[in-house]
Amino acid sequence: MRKVIMAIGLALAPPLTAQSVVGGWSEVPGPALASEVGPAARYAVAHLPKPHGKLKTIVGAERQVVAGMNYRMLLVLSDGKRWRVQVWKKLDGTMQLTHFKRVK
Predict the structure, then answer these.
(1) Domain holding 60: CATH number?
(2) Which letter, b or e, does each residue of 74-103 get, where b requires 16 or more Cβ atoms within 10 Å of its Cβ?
(3) pLDDT higher than threshold 90 for residue 23
(4) How far apart are CA 55 and CA 29, in angstroms?
(5) How far apart are CA 93 and CA 38, in angstroms?
């Protein structure tokens, strides 16, 4: 069972580059921000303490292969507030907001 879960995780993970370190953080390239990180960013904004604006921009993001994928992002909302958030996308596709902090 463990090997099956590991195989699924590796199959769903984005390809590793020369700069990737398994278990380490790697930058999500700009062109992939909306497609790869967008769903996690929208999930994070929906689970931030209210009141807050809507997602305006994903400034940057990093990913970490775990049992699923961790995404660490800097987001700008329509009210001008900036948030550093971390979302865990589990192997079953569900997400969990694991860290959030408003930054100035």
Answers:
(1) 3.10.450.10
(2) bbebeeebebebbbbbeeeeebebeebeee
(3) no
(4) 19
(5) 14
pLDDT over 80 (residue 73): yes
Domain count, the chain: 1
Q: What are 101's two structure tokens? A: 């902090």
Enclosing domain of residue 41: 2-103
Residue 6 has pLDDT above 50, yes or no: no
Question: Does this model's pTM top 0.70?
Answer: yes
What CA–CA distances, in Å, run from 18 to 2, 21, 33, 71? Answer: 27, 8, 19, 19
User: Which run of H or E residues covers position 3?
Assistant: helix 2-12
Backbone angles phi, psi at 98, to 5 degrees: -100, -15
User: Tens digits of per-residue pLDDT, 25-51?
Assistant: 999 998 888 899 999 999 999 999 999
